[in-house]
Protein backbone atom coordinates (compact mmCIF):
# COMPACT_ATOMS: atom_id res chain seq x y z
CA UNK A 1 0.00 0.00 0.00
CA UNK A 2 1.61 3.23 -1.16
CA UNK A 3 -1.07 5.92 -0.76
CA UNK A 4 -1.78 7.50 2.61
CA UNK A 5 -5.27 8.69 1.62
CA UNK A 6 -6.16 5.22 0.35
CA UNK A 7 -5.23 3.73 3.72
CA UNK A 8 -7.44 6.29 5.48
CA UNK A 9 -10.51 5.57 3.36
CA UNK A 10 -9.89 1.82 3.52
CA UNK A 11 -10.59 1.93 7.26
CA UNK A 12 -13.74 3.97 6.66
CA UNK A 13 -14.86 1.39 4.09
CA UNK A 14 -14.60 -1.40 6.67
CA UNK A 15 -16.80 0.63 9.01
CA UNK A 16 -19.34 1.35 6.25
CA UNK A 17 -19.55 -2.31 5.23
CA UNK A 18 -20.31 -3.52 8.75
CA UNK A 19 -23.07 -0.90 9.15
CA UNK A 20 -24.54 -1.93 5.79
CA UNK A 21 -24.52 -5.61 6.78
CA UNK A 22 -26.11 -4.88 10.16
CA UNK A 23 -28.93 -2.86 8.57
CA UNK A 24 -29.52 -5.15 5.58
CA UNK A 25 -29.71 -8.34 7.64
CA UNK A 26 -32.48 -6.79 9.72
CA UNK A 27 -34.70 -7.26 6.66
CA UNK A 28 -34.33 -11.05 6.87
CA UNK A 29 -37.76 -12.32 8.01
CA UNK A 30 -36.44 -15.13 10.21
CA UNK A 31 -34.52 -18.38 10.41
CA UNK A 32 -37.30 -20.67 9.24
CA UNK A 33 -36.57 -24.27 10.18
CA UNK A 34 -33.06 -23.45 11.42
CA UNK A 35 -33.70 -22.77 15.11
CA UNK A 36 -31.38 -22.69 18.06
CA UNK A 37 -28.22 -22.28 15.99
CA UNK A 38 -26.16 -19.13 16.26
CA UNK A 39 -28.17 -15.97 15.86
CA UNK A 40 -31.32 -18.04 15.39
CA UNK A 41 -31.35 -18.53 19.15
CA UNK A 42 -33.01 -15.10 19.20
CA UNK A 43 -36.26 -16.67 18.02
CA UNK A 44 -36.54 -18.35 21.43
CA UNK A 45 -35.37 -15.30 23.35
CA UNK A 46 -37.68 -13.11 25.42
CA UNK A 47 -35.73 -10.03 24.30
CA UNK A 48 -37.56 -8.51 21.34
CA UNK A 49 -34.41 -6.65 20.26
CA UNK A 50 -32.22 -9.75 20.31
CA UNK A 51 -32.01 -10.04 16.52
CA UNK A 52 -31.10 -6.35 16.09
CA UNK A 53 -28.51 -6.42 18.88
CA UNK A 54 -26.86 -9.64 17.76
CA UNK A 55 -26.49 -8.37 14.21
CA UNK A 56 -24.71 -5.30 15.56
CA UNK A 57 -22.41 -7.41 17.75
CA UNK A 58 -21.57 -9.92 15.00
CA UNK A 59 -20.85 -7.34 12.32
CA UNK A 60 -18.77 -5.48 14.91
CA UNK A 61 -16.73 -8.60 15.63
CA UNK A 62 -16.03 -9.11 11.92
CA UNK A 63 -14.81 -5.55 11.44
CA UNK A 64 -12.70 -5.73 14.61
CA UNK A 65 -10.96 -8.81 13.22
CA UNK A 66 -10.24 -6.95 9.99
CA UNK A 67 -8.75 -3.99 11.86
CA UNK A 68 -6.58 -6.36 13.89
CA UNK A 69 -5.50 -8.16 10.71
CA UNK A 70 -4.62 -4.89 8.95
CA UNK A 71 -2.65 -3.72 11.98
CA UNK A 72 -0.82 -7.04 12.17
CA UNK A 73 0.08 -6.98 8.46
CA UNK A 74 1.32 -3.42 8.86
CA UNK A 75 3.56 -4.35 11.80
CA UNK A 76 4.91 -7.30 9.81
CA UNK A 77 5.48 -5.05 6.77
CA UNK A 78 3.28 -7.32 4.65
CA UNK A 79 0.82 -4.73 3.42
CA UNK A 80 2.56 -4.06 0.09
CA UNK A 81 -0.02 -5.25 -2.42
CA UNK A 82 -1.67 -3.00 -4.97
CA UNK A 83 -4.66 -0.93 -3.94
CA UNK A 84 -7.11 -2.96 -6.02
CA UNK A 85 -5.94 -6.22 -4.42
CA UNK A 86 -6.23 -4.82 -0.90
CA UNK A 87 -9.66 -3.33 -1.62
CA UNK A 88 -11.10 -6.56 -3.05
CA UNK A 89 -9.55 -8.60 -0.23
CA UNK A 90 -11.08 -6.41 2.48
CA UNK A 91 -14.56 -6.46 0.88
CA UNK A 92 -14.40 -10.23 0.37
CA UNK A 93 -13.14 -10.87 3.90
CA UNK A 94 -15.87 -8.71 5.42
CA UNK A 95 -18.50 -10.66 3.46
CA UNK A 96 -17.06 -14.13 4.11
CA UNK A 97 -16.73 -13.51 7.85
CA UNK A 98 -20.46 -12.89 8.18
CA UNK A 99 -21.47 -16.55 7.75
CA UNK A 100 -19.35 -17.98 10.60
CA UNK A 101 -20.27 -14.99 12.76
CA UNK A 102 -23.97 -15.72 12.28
CA UNK A 103 -23.44 -19.35 13.31
CA UNK A 104 -21.63 -18.62 16.58
CA UNK A 105 -23.68 -18.91 19.81
CA UNK A 106 -25.03 -15.77 21.48
CA UNK A 107 -23.01 -16.31 24.65
CA UNK A 108 -19.78 -15.62 22.75
CA UNK A 109 -20.77 -11.99 22.13
CA UNK A 110 -21.79 -11.05 25.66
CA UNK A 111 -18.36 -9.59 26.41
CA UNK A 112 -18.78 -7.12 23.53
CA UNK A 113 -21.90 -5.75 25.18
CA UNK A 114 -20.00 -4.97 28.38
CA UNK A 115 -16.76 -3.74 26.84
CA UNK A 116 -18.53 -1.51 24.31
CA UNK A 117 -19.89 0.72 27.09
CA UNK A 118 -16.41 1.88 28.05
CA UNK A 119 -14.82 1.78 24.58
CA UNK A 120 -17.67 3.84 23.11
CA UNK A 121 -17.27 6.40 25.91
CA UNK A 122 -13.57 6.73 25.08
CA UNK A 123 -14.38 7.30 21.41
CA UNK A 124 -16.84 10.04 22.32
CA UNK A 125 -13.93 11.92 23.87
CA UNK A 126 -11.78 11.30 20.78
CA UNK A 127 -14.67 12.41 18.61
CA UNK A 128 -14.69 15.72 20.47
CA UNK A 129 -11.04 16.19 19.48
CA UNK A 130 -11.93 15.51 15.84
CA UNK A 131 -14.74 18.07 15.85
CA UNK A 132 -12.54 20.64 17.62
CA UNK A 133 -9.79 20.19 15.09
CA UNK A 134 -12.27 20.48 12.22
CA UNK A 135 -13.72 23.67 13.66
CA UNK A 136 -10.24 25.14 14.08
CA UNK A 137 -9.35 24.22 10.50
CA UNK A 138 -12.51 25.85 9.17
CA UNK A 139 -12.00 28.91 11.37
CA UNK A 140 -8.42 29.36 10.18
CA UNK A 141 -9.26 28.92 6.51
CA UNK A 142 -12.14 31.38 6.54
CA UNK A 143 -10.15 33.99 8.42
CA UNK A 144 -7.09 33.51 6.20
CA UNK A 145 -9.26 33.96 3.10
CA UNK A 146 -10.75 37.09 4.68
CA UNK A 147 -7.29 38.57 5.24
CA UNK A 148 -6.22 37.69 1.70
CA UNK A 149 -9.37 39.27 0.29
CA UNK A 150 -8.61 42.50 2.15
CA UNK A 151 -5.04 42.46 0.88
CA UNK A 152 -6.14 42.09 -2.74
CA UNK A 153 -8.77 44.83 -2.73
CA UNK A 154 -9.08 48.35 -1.37
CA UNK A 155 -12.59 47.68 -0.08
CA UNK A 156 -12.98 45.73 3.15
CA UNK A 157 -16.45 44.38 2.31
CA UNK A 158 -15.12 40.93 1.44
CA UNK A 159 -13.19 40.84 4.70
CA UNK A 160 -16.21 41.81 6.79
CA UNK A 161 -18.43 39.43 4.82
CA UNK A 162 -16.29 36.43 5.70
CA UNK A 163 -16.12 37.46 9.33
CA UNK A 164 -19.89 37.88 9.35
CA UNK A 165 -20.17 34.35 7.96
CA UNK A 166 -18.10 32.98 10.82
CA UNK A 167 -20.20 34.81 13.41
CA UNK A 168 -23.46 33.74 11.73
CA UNK A 169 -22.49 30.06 11.67
CA UNK A 170 -21.36 30.22 15.29
CA UNK A 171 -24.56 31.93 16.44
CA UNK A 172 -26.68 29.45 14.49
CA UNK A 173 -24.94 26.56 16.26
CA UNK A 174 -25.37 28.15 19.70
CA UNK A 175 -29.02 29.11 19.15
CA UNK A 176 -29.83 25.68 17.72
CA UNK A 177 -28.12 24.01 20.67
CA UNK A 178 -30.08 26.17 23.14
CA UNK A 179 -33.37 25.31 21.44
CA UNK A 180 -32.48 21.61 21.55
CA UNK A 181 -31.50 21.94 25.22
CA UNK A 182 -34.83 23.53 26.13
CA UNK A 183 -36.68 20.80 24.24
CA UNK A 184 -34.72 18.06 26.01
CA UNK A 185 -35.48 19.55 29.44
CA UNK A 186 -39.20 19.70 28.61
CA UNK A 187 -39.44 16.29 26.92
CA UNK A 188 -37.08 14.33 29.17
CA UNK A 189 -37.00 15.83 32.69
CA UNK A 190 -34.64 13.05 33.86
CA UNK A 191 -31.72 14.66 32.01
CA UNK A 192 -32.37 18.23 33.13
CA UNK A 193 -29.30 18.31 35.39
CA UNK A 194 -27.12 16.96 32.60
CA UNK A 195 -28.46 19.49 30.08
CA UNK A 196 -28.28 22.49 32.43
CA UNK A 197 -24.70 21.67 33.43
CA UNK A 198 -23.73 21.26 29.79
CA UNK A 199 -25.31 24.60 28.83
CA UNK A 200 -23.76 26.47 31.76
CA UNK A 201 -20.30 24.94 31.30
CA UNK A 202 -20.29 25.40 27.53
CA UNK A 203 -21.52 28.99 27.86
CA UNK A 204 -18.78 29.87 30.33
CA UNK A 205 -16.08 28.35 28.12
CA UNK A 206 -17.52 30.12 25.09
CA UNK A 207 -17.45 33.48 26.88
CA UNK A 208 -13.89 32.88 28.04
CA UNK A 209 -12.77 31.88 24.54
CA UNK A 210 -13.84 35.22 23.01
CA UNK A 211 -12.07 37.40 25.56
CA UNK A 212 -8.63 38.91 25.06
CA UNK A 213 -7.42 36.92 28.08
CA UNK A 214 -7.86 33.64 26.20
CA UNK A 215 -5.33 34.24 23.46
CA UNK A 216 -6.00 31.00 21.61
CA UNK A 217 -9.75 30.85 21.99
CA UNK A 218 -12.09 30.43 19.05
CA UNK A 219 -15.74 31.40 18.78
CA UNK A 220 -16.45 28.84 16.08
CA UNK A 221 -14.73 26.00 17.92
CA UNK A 222 -16.52 26.81 21.16
CA UNK A 223 -19.84 26.93 19.28
CA UNK A 224 -19.20 23.54 17.70
CA UNK A 225 -18.38 22.05 21.09
CA UNK A 226 -21.49 23.72 22.56
CA UNK A 227 -23.63 21.90 19.99
CA UNK A 228 -21.70 18.65 20.46
CA UNK A 229 -22.24 18.70 24.23
CA UNK A 230 -25.99 19.09 23.73
CA UNK A 231 -25.90 16.21 21.27
CA UNK A 232 -24.24 14.09 23.96
CA UNK A 233 -27.11 15.04 26.28
CA UNK A 234 -29.51 13.84 23.60
CA UNK A 235 -27.66 10.53 23.52
CA UNK A 236 -27.95 10.29 27.30
CA UNK A 237 -31.70 10.91 27.06
CA UNK A 238 -32.10 8.23 24.37
CA UNK A 239 -30.97 5.41 26.72
CA UNK A 240 -32.55 6.61 29.95
CA UNK A 241 -34.18 3.80 31.94
CA UNK A 242 -37.89 3.96 31.26
CA UNK A 243 -40.82 2.97 33.41
CA UNK A 244 -42.33 1.08 30.49
CA UNK A 245 -40.61 -1.00 27.84
CA UNK A 246 -40.29 0.75 24.49
CA UNK A 247 -38.06 0.20 21.51
CA UNK A 248 -35.13 2.55 20.99
CA UNK A 249 -34.74 2.99 17.23
CA UNK A 250 -31.48 3.42 15.35
CA UNK A 251 -31.65 7.07 14.32
CA UNK A 252 -29.99 8.56 11.27
CA UNK A 253 -28.64 11.34 13.47
CA UNK A 254 -26.87 8.75 15.59
CA UNK A 255 -25.13 7.35 12.48
CA UNK A 256 -24.53 10.75 10.89
CA UNK A 257 -22.33 12.08 13.71
CA UNK A 258 -19.71 9.25 13.61
CA UNK A 259 -19.88 9.36 9.81
CA UNK A 260 -18.88 13.03 9.83
CA UNK A 261 -16.13 12.54 12.41
CA UNK A 262 -14.59 9.52 10.64
CA UNK A 263 -14.86 11.19 7.23
CA UNK A 264 -12.97 14.21 8.54
CA UNK A 265 -10.48 11.88 10.20
CA UNK A 266 -9.85 10.31 6.78
CA UNK A 267 -9.51 13.62 4.95
CA UNK A 268 -7.30 15.49 7.40
CA UNK A 269 -3.86 14.52 8.67
CA UNK A 270 -3.83 16.86 11.67
CA UNK A 271 -6.14 14.88 14.05
CA UNK A 272 -3.86 11.83 13.99
CA UNK A 273 -0.87 14.10 14.52
CA UNK A 274 -2.51 15.68 17.58
CA UNK A 275 -3.56 12.31 19.00
CA UNK A 276 0.00 11.05 18.54
CA UNK A 277 1.35 14.16 20.28
CA UNK A 278 3.79 15.15 17.56
CA UNK A 279 4.39 18.36 15.63
CA UNK A 280 3.97 18.88 11.92
CA UNK A 281 6.86 17.67 9.77
CA UNK A 282 7.73 17.16 6.12
CA UNK A 283 5.95 13.78 5.98
CA UNK A 284 2.60 15.53 6.48
CA UNK A 285 2.89 17.15 3.05
CA UNK A 286 3.30 13.85 1.17
CA UNK A 287 0.87 11.05 0.32
CA UNK A 288 3.27 8.23 1.16
CA UNK A 289 1.96 5.43 3.35
CA UNK A 290 2.90 5.91 7.01
CA UNK A 291 2.74 2.70 9.11
CA UNK A 292 2.66 4.57 12.43
CA UNK A 293 -0.18 6.78 11.23
CA UNK A 294 -2.08 3.75 9.94
CA UNK A 295 -1.72 1.87 13.25
CA UNK A 296 -3.03 4.86 15.18
CA UNK A 297 -5.99 5.15 12.83
CA UNK A 298 -6.70 1.43 13.20
CA UNK A 299 -6.93 1.97 16.95
CA UNK A 300 -9.29 4.94 16.55
CA UNK A 301 -11.53 2.97 14.17
CA UNK A 302 -11.33 0.04 16.58
CA UNK A 303 -12.90 2.24 19.28
CA UNK A 304 -15.30 3.80 16.78
CA UNK A 305 -16.60 0.32 16.04
CA UNK A 306 -17.88 0.05 19.61
CA UNK A 307 -19.42 3.50 19.35
CA UNK A 308 -21.29 2.54 16.17
CA UNK A 309 -22.51 -0.61 17.91
CA UNK A 310 -23.96 1.52 20.71
CA UNK A 311 -25.94 3.35 18.02
CA UNK A 312 -27.04 0.23 16.14
CA UNK A 313 -27.91 -1.67 19.34
CA UNK A 314 -28.82 0.85 22.06
CA UNK A 315 -29.23 -0.89 25.41
CA UNK A 316 -30.96 0.58 28.47
CA UNK A 317 -29.48 0.37 31.97
CA UNK A 318 -28.54 2.74 34.76
CA UNK A 319 -24.86 1.88 34.30
CA UNK A 320 -24.93 2.82 30.62
CA UNK A 321 -26.95 5.93 31.46
CA UNK A 322 -24.37 7.11 34.02
CA UNK A 323 -21.35 6.30 31.86
CA UNK A 324 -22.80 8.18 28.91
CA UNK A 325 -23.74 11.11 31.17
CA UNK A 326 -20.13 11.27 32.36
CA UNK A 327 -18.95 11.65 28.76
CA UNK A 328 -20.85 14.94 28.58
CA UNK A 329 -18.46 16.48 31.12
CA UNK A 330 -15.18 14.96 29.93
CA UNK A 331 -15.08 16.47 26.40
CA UNK A 332 -16.17 19.85 27.73
CA UNK A 333 -13.69 20.10 30.58
CA UNK A 334 -10.66 18.27 29.20
CA UNK A 335 -11.29 19.04 25.54
CA UNK A 336 -12.86 22.42 24.96
CA UNK A 337 -11.27 23.98 28.03
CA UNK A 338 -7.86 22.59 27.10
CA UNK A 339 -7.93 23.82 23.51
CA UNK A 340 -9.25 27.24 24.55
CA UNK A 341 -6.58 27.94 27.13
CA UNK A 342 -3.47 26.06 26.05
CA UNK A 343 -1.11 28.06 23.82
CA UNK A 344 -0.06 24.88 22.00
CA UNK A 345 -3.48 23.24 21.73
CA UNK A 346 -4.04 21.62 18.35
CA UNK A 347 -1.16 23.64 16.96
CA UNK A 348 -3.32 26.70 16.38
CA UNK A 349 -2.03 30.24 16.58
CA UNK A 350 -5.06 32.45 16.95
CA UNK A 351 -8.86 32.48 16.87
CA UNK A 352 -11.53 34.99 15.99
CA UNK A 353 -13.87 37.38 17.73
CA UNK A 354 -14.54 40.51 15.71
CA UNK A 355 -12.29 42.45 13.39
CA UNK A 356 -10.35 44.21 16.13
CA UNK A 357 -9.37 41.12 18.10
CA UNK A 358 -5.92 40.73 16.55
CA UNK A 359 -3.69 43.74 15.96
CA UNK A 360 -0.98 41.52 14.49
CA UNK A 361 -3.13 40.54 11.50
CA UNK A 362 -4.24 44.14 11.02
CA UNK A 363 -0.64 45.34 10.94
CA UNK A 364 0.33 42.69 8.40
CA UNK A 365 -2.58 43.62 6.15
CA UNK A 366 -1.74 47.31 6.52
CA UNK A 367 1.91 46.73 5.56
CA UNK A 368 0.90 44.69 2.51
CA UNK A 369 -1.39 47.48 1.28
CA UNK A 370 1.35 50.11 1.75
CA UNK A 371 3.88 48.02 -0.11
Automatic annotation (TrEMBL):
Q: Could you identify this protein by its name? A: Uncharacterized protein
Keywords, alphabetical: Membrane, Signal, Transmembrane, Transmembrane helix
Q: Which family, according to UniProt? A: Belongs to the TDE1 family.
- Any coiled-coil ranges, and where? none
Q: Does the keyword Signal apply?
A: yes
Compartments in which it is found: Membrane
Q: What is the lineage of its organism?
A: Eukaryota, Sar, Alveolata, Dinophyceae, Suessiales
Whether Transmembrane counts among this entry's keywords is yes
Looking up PANTHER family in the UniProt record yields:
SERINE INCORPORATOR (PTHR10383), SERINE INCORPORATOR, ISOFORM F (PTHR10383:SF9)
Concerning InterPro entries, the annotation shows:
TDE1/TMS
| Bilayer topology | Multi-pass membrane protein
- Signal peptide region: 1-22
Transmembrane parts of this sequence: 85-108, 159-184, 190-210, 249-267
